[in-house]
Amino acid sequence: MTDVERLRREAEARRDRLIATRRDLHAHPEIAFQEIRTADIVAHRLAELGFEVQTGVGKTGVVGVMEGERAGDGHTLLLRFDMDALPIHEQVDVPFRSQRDGWMHACGHDAHTAIGLSVAELLAADRAAWSGTAKFVFQPAEEIVAGARAMIDDGVLENPRPDRALSLHVFSTLPTGVIAMTDGPTMAGSGAFTITVRGRGAHGAMPHQGADPILGAAHIITALQSIVSRNVNPMEQAVVTVGYVHGGTAHNIIPDDVELGGTTRAFSTAVGDLLNQRIQEIAQHTARALGVEAVVSISESATPPLINDAGLAEVVRRQARRLVGAEHVRTDVRLMGAEDAALFLQAMPGAYVFVGAGNPAKGIDEPHHSPRFQIDEDALPIAVALLTASAIDMLND
Ligand SMILES: [Zn+2]
Ligand SMILES: [Zn+2]
After folding, report:
1. Nearest Cα to 279, choosing from 315, 323, 330, 227?
2. How many domains does the chain fold into?
3. Ligand 2: distance of its center to the CA of 169 in Å?
4. What pTM value is reported for the model?
5. 15 and 134: one domain?
6. Distance (Å) from CA 167 to ligand 2 centroid
């Protein structure tokens, strides 16, 4: 088992550069598929460290590959860090605040990129400690859940083909010094649906001359609420949310059609499939009962649930317990949010860990995607030590 305490000392010794990197990225946020400057910094740093670097993977993604020198076969480990910011205007007054109006690192991916570069540095500095191949994947466009798919389409899962994956998210609503590593389903799979309710427009005073899609849409929205309460096993978790309703133009006009759109969340593909099936049935039959027609389209770019491999999760937890103490390691954190790292963990066994980065005493506890989002930088060396130690353990056996 790799000495995580030593790695923490080494991460602390490199703390200034780690934080400077994170602050530089924070000041220069780039949103999905526009991570040009970020990718450039990543590619240069990886090349300096001796990685074989490939750029433009999935548009703006960067891949760095290095082999260890320790005897033994080892594994090929995919280490994934996302790089993109959000279209949010930062409301935090710090010296390194976003220099780009309307764009902000409000989810901590600036920290992920900086952490990834530090992990790469520590692994490169101690190649004798590990066997196998480390494959660093700096991913674009997580926030629009498109970057992982784009990198996979560009062949990131081949040459060399990784057989294990490791990734993280810093978490502002968990305190610094807490690490959450949950077995099995940890983040939900997400889907999107669009329902077009087609009626026949008429005068609002003479509804009998038309077919009212607004009434149809209202009944459909209400009936969709029965999916979670009546169709999903109460021991499972699921969400069906209608997020928008577009239709109509005036007080006295019945429109031709109305469009609804929404999202679904579930921790298993089976439940996700059930949600989609019931959305179609309910929309179509409710519409027909009211004399209108519903055309349902289910998005094909769904994100699967993120499922941690129990064995690899335990590899991370073992190091986490040594690093922060067993009482600070949680195993029960699950989120309805989706995360496209799930696509990597669907392709191979992996571990996705939450690293606490909140600190209410310092006023750092805003949720992710808030314009006031901040992270506690004391969490960064902890994340670096945890990921480096876990990576070496996952590479070696
Ligand atoms: Zn986010
Ligand atoms: Zn995020």
Report:
1. 227
2. 2
3. 7
4. 0.93
5. yes
6. 11
